[in-house]
Amino acid sequence: MASKLIAKLFQWAGWRIEGPRPIGLKKAIWVVAPHSSNYDFFVGLGVRATLGMDIGFLAKKELFNWYSGWFFRWMGGYPVERNKTTNLVDAVVSLINSQESIHLSLAPEGTRSDVEKLKTGFYYMAKGAQVPIILVSFSHSKKRVVLSAPLYPGTDSSEDMTTLYNFYRQQGDVHKAWILNTPAS
């Protein structure tokens, strides 16, 4: 019931989803960029409800405090320690491998601030768990969400990252430094 309401609100707000819908895909890492607004969380809920998919998310552990942690866990959140060296990639690979079906989304910038380059942990999570990456672009100005076809990490990480950067570069109204500062293929 709540999902149908969220999907309707998403539609009424003028948002639309473009690109192939990975319905039936059992596991994937969803890479959402650019992460530029607190509203991205609500857009993500709208995407999840519209697609009818259970997509969890990795988020900074500070969101999972004593008064709001229950809510973010209930919404499918997994807390991430960002300030110290952890074995997050291996932990996520183990989590994915322990599930029959799991979709996890994350913002590879690790912040809403502009960054020079993306963090690459998502790539090694997908590669380690042998699951595809779904690239997701949010455009608040155009109220659209663009999905890529599943990208299966190959043997050439440089080629895979070029594909990723080119996808985000093609979205047009994205002006993040990490897109502008990477070579196009």
Please provide a written account of the structure:
By secondary structure, the chain is of the alpha/beta class. The protein has a seven-stranded mixed beta sheet, with helices on both faces. It contains seven helices and seven strands. The mean pLDDT is 85. It has helices at 2-12, 40-51, 69-74, 88-97, 121-129, 157-169, 177-180, and strands spanning 16-18, 27-33, 55-60, 77-80, 102-106, 133-139, 144-147. Helix 1 crosses helix 2 (40-51) and helix 4 (88-97) runs parallel beside helix 5. 35% of the residues lie in helices and 19% in strands. The chain has one domain. The termini are far apart.
Could you give the topology of this structure?
Blueprint: H1 2-12, E1 16-18, E2 27-33, H2 40-51, E3 55-60, H3 69-74, E4 77-80, H4 88-97, E5 102-106, H5 121-129, E6 133-139, E7 144-147, H6 157-169, H7 177-180
Protein name: 1-acyl-sn-glycerol-3-phosphate acyltransferase
InterPro entries: Plipid/glycerol_acylTrfase
Pfam families: Acyltransferase
Which stretches are low in confidence, meaning pLDDT under 50 for 5 or more residues running? Answer: none
Oligomer: single chain
How would you spell out the order of helices and strands? HEEHEHEHEHEEHH
Number of helices: 7
What is the number of E strands?
7
Q: Roughly how much helix do the residues carry, as a percent range?
A: 25-40%
Q: What kind of sheet is the major sheet? A: 7 strands, mixed
What's the pLDDT, averaged over the residues? 85
Strand order of the largest sheet: 1-7-6-2-5-3-4
Question: What shape does the CA trace take?
Answer: globular
CA radius of gyration: 16 Å
Provide the β-strand percentage band.
Answer: 15-25%
- Overall structural class, as computed from helix and strand content, comes to alpha/beta
**Ends distance:** 45 Å
